[in-house]
Amino acid sequence: MDKIWVLAEQHDGVPVGVVLELLTAARGFGNVIEVVTWGPSSVSAVTALGQYGAAKVYDVGDIGESLPGPKVAAAMAARISGGDGPDAILIGATHDGRDIAARLSVRLDLPVLTNVVGFDASEGGLTTEHTIFGGSMVLRAVFTGGAPGIFVIRTKSFAAEPVEAAEPPSPEVVAIDVPETGASDAARVVARHEEERSGPKLDEAAVVVSGGRGLGSPDNYALITELAQLLNGAPGASRAIVDAGWVPYAFQVGQTGKTVKPMVYIACGISGATQHMVGMKAAKNIIAINKDQEAPIFAIADLGVVGDVTKVIPRLIEAIKVRR
Amino acid sequence: MNVAVCVKQIPDTADPPALDPRDHTLVREGKLIMDDSDSYGVEMGLQLVEAGGGGEVSLVSMAPNGETTGLRNALAIGAARAILVSDPVLSGSDALGTAKVLAAAMRRLEPDLVLAGTESTDGYTGTTPVQVAELLGWPSVSFAKHIEISDGLLRVQRQTEAGYDEVTCPLPAVVTVTAGVVEPRYPSFKGIMAAKSKPVEEVTVAELGLDPSEVGSAGARQQVISVEAVEARKAGEIVVDQGDAHERVISFLQQLKIL
Ligand SMILES: Cc1cc2nc3c(=O)[nH]c(=O)nc-3n(C[C@H](O)[C@H](O)[C@H](O)COP(=O)(O)OP(=O)(O)OC[C@H]3O[C@@H](n4cnc5c(N)ncnc54)[C@H](O)[C@@H]3O)c2cc1C
Ligand SMILES: Nc1ncnc2c1ncn2[C@@H]1O[C@H](COP(=O)(O)O)[C@@H](O)[C@H]1O
């Protein structure tokens, strides 16, 4: 492949993790790697993007209170119809990434290929690997629709590695215009709220302790928080308890939540639905505590404890405290 | 205010999913059920219409084989009508093809608001609704966890990876709702009986004015090479707690130098 674009979502000038993963992956099969970014501090991200292989940064600039979808997709589509188009566009499966991919797809009248977890360029063309059926099967496919292929890639599918060079390349920055987007861009962000979290980030922590419906009550989630803290890890959750309002969505692990790859994942009172497992089964080690010996989570656990979480976890917490 | 809710009918999730070995498309035989992910949109639509004092909820569904069983429950809890786009040429449609069909149906219905799920249970591309919005030239707000409407303006709490954003948006618009936004109600006996006589309009691709080459497998532009099971992780040691299982967890964590 000659030219690859990576969508470079960043917040306050820091590219989100999946962008660095995709730049690393793109280096494996692209000759020229360029990125598209936006936001008030977009220029602060340029150095980091260069360190991971971006040769050029297309900057949409500040989009104000707009949601990114309409403006960023319109700017990309205009650049592509102007003749600067790439052979493939790699987009991380974030909320904004999916919106941009969807709108770009309509503007270019090209499909979006989603749930990508791997690329293979060894036989000339680009073969993509997609997870289907909640991550239980992998489908390999080639895109036959001409350039560019639009790919939405699941986070943590690739490890991020900077370019090995004494002098990190400094990418050329090119401002790109946003054409008229009309009514499609009428939504406005009027306030932003971030959940307060202390300790390591869920998708970066070496230890993740997650709780599910088996905790029995929202109050028992305190056990998860305490155990995570003692292990210097991050607390996570199944969707069942996020939907029930016990913990915020930012805690959710799984298909629609975060993908984690910690050294140890401790699943407490979680049954192990495919949509949960797809977000954590790449953990190096898995410990599961569940009172039902038949729970699917035990099929992938390195250590399975058949027991009551409300009894096992307090004893575990006490034993760890005694050791300190 | 009139709300249209996109509802996907999918094979029963209790049955193991299957692919057609010839063309690797999802097998959609047998009874279909309404995707659970869409039950929240239906309930949200009903609540918004009730709060707005007037209007109705319509369902829009695309399915290749004239299936309506997955719509009955939504009609039984209060949706007024349904449009079912059904046509053999729709088999093998991808998200963009599906979006073209749904957008064409929306042009017929002219709703004030379109609700959809953030992602379907079987396909989970998560792009279809925003593609519908772009095709209609409408704004969209994805990942809504709370929706209110006042003076014709939507106020949405949109989940983000770190928390949530408060977003305002004029109508008409497309909003995708996450699971858990609302608790879907159960149908009453009266509702189930009433659903039997509610109108379900079946339309074809041609009736929507679409070119068959744009939808179905003809539009999908992806050639499947292989489908394989993911290599499964193996189960490890199992201990049954007799009051001392935490000690085994401790020694496991010690081996990993976590403790
Ligand atoms: C499109 C789609 C996307 C989804 N995305 C996600 C996602 O991102 N993340 C996710 O997690 N889920 C997701 N789900 C939901 C998923 O299918 C499951 O419903 C969910 O993961 C179940 O959560 P749970 O394991 O906490 O609850 P349950 O399945 O109810 O399991 C609770 C477990 O706790 C055990 N238990 C009960 N009491 C105790 C006790 N005292 N001690 C020990 N164990 C006990 C039970 O044996 C049971 O195994 C998604 C579903 C769909 C359709
Ligand atoms: N065939 C369909 N009929 C009606 N709605 C659909 C269809 N496919 C997708 N949708 C809607 O789009 C949402 C996201 O689906 P997907 O893009 O498949 O993840 C679903 O939750 C539905 O609301």
How would you summarize this macromolecular structure in one to three sentences?
The complex is a heterodimer of chains A (324) and B (259). Chain A contains eight helices and 17 strands.
CATH architecture title of chain B: 3-Layer(aba) Sandwich
Instruction: Name the CATH class of chain B.
Output: Alpha Beta
Number of domains of chain A: 2
Tally of alpha and pi helices of chain A: 8
Main sheet properties of chain B:
9 strands, mixed
Rounded radius of gyration of chain A (Å): 21 Å
Outline type of chain B = globular
Distance between the termini of chain B: 59 Å
Q: Return the domain count of chain B.
A: 1
What is the chain-wise order of helices and strands of chain A? EEEHEHEHEHEEEEEEEHEHEHEEH
Topology:
The complex is a heterodimer of chains A (324) and B (259).
Chain A: E1 3-7, E2 10-11, E3 14-15, H1 17-27, E4 32-37, H2 46-51, E5 56-59, H3 68-84, E6 88-92, H4 95-108, E7 112-120, E8 127-132, E9 137-143, E10 149-153, E11 172-175, E12 188-194, E13 207-211, H5 221-230, E14 234-237, H6 239-243, E15 264-268, H7 274-277, E16 285-290, E17 303-306, H8 309-323
Parallel strand pairs in A: 1-4, 1-6, 4-5, 5-11, 6-10, 7-10, 13-14, 13-15, 15-16, 16-17
Antiparallel strand pairs in A: 2-3, 7-8, 8-9
Helix pairs in contact in A: 3-4, 5-8
Chain B: E1 3-6, E2 9-11, E3 32-34, H1 36-52, E4 57-62, H2 69-76, E5 81-85, H3 95-109, E6 113-117, H4 128-136, E7 140-150, E8 153-159, E9 163-170, E10 173-177, H5 189-195, E11 200-203, H6 216-220, E12 222-229, E13 237-240, H7 245-255
Flavin-adenine dinucleotide (FAD) sits between chains A (212-214, 216, 238-241, 252-257, 269-271, 273, 275-276, 279, 289-292, 295, 308-310) and B (36-37, 119, 121, 124).
